[in-house]
Amino acid sequence: MGSACSSRLCRLETNPFQIIEPAWEPFFGDADAAIDWRLLSWGGVLIDDRPIDQMLLPCAGGCIPALDDPQVTDAAGGSWLDDDRLVFGVVLNGEARAYPKHMMEVHEMVNDTPGGRRIGIPYCTLCGSAQAYFADIVPAGFETIELRTSGLLSRSNKVMFDLHTFSVFDTFLGDALSGPLQDEGYVLEMVTVVTSTWGDWKAAHPETTILLEDGGLGRTYSLDPLGGRDDNGPIFPVGAVDPRLPVQESVLGIVTADGIAVAFLVAQARSVLGSGGDVALEGVRLVADGGGLRAELDDGTPLASHESFWFAWSQFEPDTLVWTPLS
């Protein structure tokens, strides 16, 4: 979402966004917000600001509805999903859980508690990026964070916010960019998300749980709710595109404790690992997990990682190093 910008050009005296959705006023009304408003665009939907006790009600005017505390079943109960379908896998405190991609395409945000840890999982369909953040590590005096989708985009990346404080977050980096949580200098801690087929995930994690077919909502989910909408590149404005890779090349991104960003080409990395080779750069190595990838240091210490399209990763981590099979 960008760094702070003091120029009046970064803000709008007469704000057309608030004409579309008055509930965005807290985002634009924070004079200290570290958001370059010139990078914003409207995704065509309104804010999901439904109170927690009304999450089963539809959004007035239409929103992308978060899914809170989805009901789950064991791997055997997940036979409703074909083995070749994609899931986003998370493991916390030894408990694995799979979130089917086609359901995430509908909700784009899940708040859940696998392994006894509260997390928020935004999925930006436009960026090909499912991420997860701890929501139960908060400054003193604040409630556990409940993430929601605003309906706004920044460089084709979804703009998310905390329902309790209306603090905006950089969805890609986890930084609080406005509101009370920005005043606290708060940054969400990232959790590894593995993109895998369901068959490979449950083979690697036989004790996994998976969301119920109806999400616990009694609804029906299309297996292709987007209808190929994003297959031909970004459909909303993005920043300057790094030409090193195609815009929709899938990469696994990691930022080390030293602040070094590394991007691994997913298809090539899987091929090398499948042939018994090593995939490593800057002290980071990849390991197979189900049908997907995760990252760790050379000594086995896990590193938070997730997949995304190259155009998104490179915009938010412009100094990233890139691993290729020749690295």
Structure keywords:
327 residues, 7 helices, five-stranded mixed beta sheet, alpha+beta, six-stranded mixed beta sheet
Q: On the 0-100 scale, what is the average pLDDT?
A: 92
The portion of residues forming beta strands comes to 25-35%
Gyration radius (Cα, Å) is: 19 Å
The number of helices is 7
User: Any idea what the shape is?
Assistant: globular
Helix and strand arrangement:
Layout: H1 16-20, H2 25-29, E1 40-42, E2 67-68, E3 72-74, E4 86-92, E5 95-100, H3 101-107, E6 109-112, E7 119-124, E8 129-130, E9 132-134, E10 147-154, E11 157-162, E12 168-169, H4 179-183, E13 190-191, E14 194-197, H5 198-204, E15 209-211, E16 250-255, E17 261-265, H6 266-274, E18 280-281, E19 284-289, E20 292-297, E21 302-303, E22 306-309, H7 310-316, E23 321-323
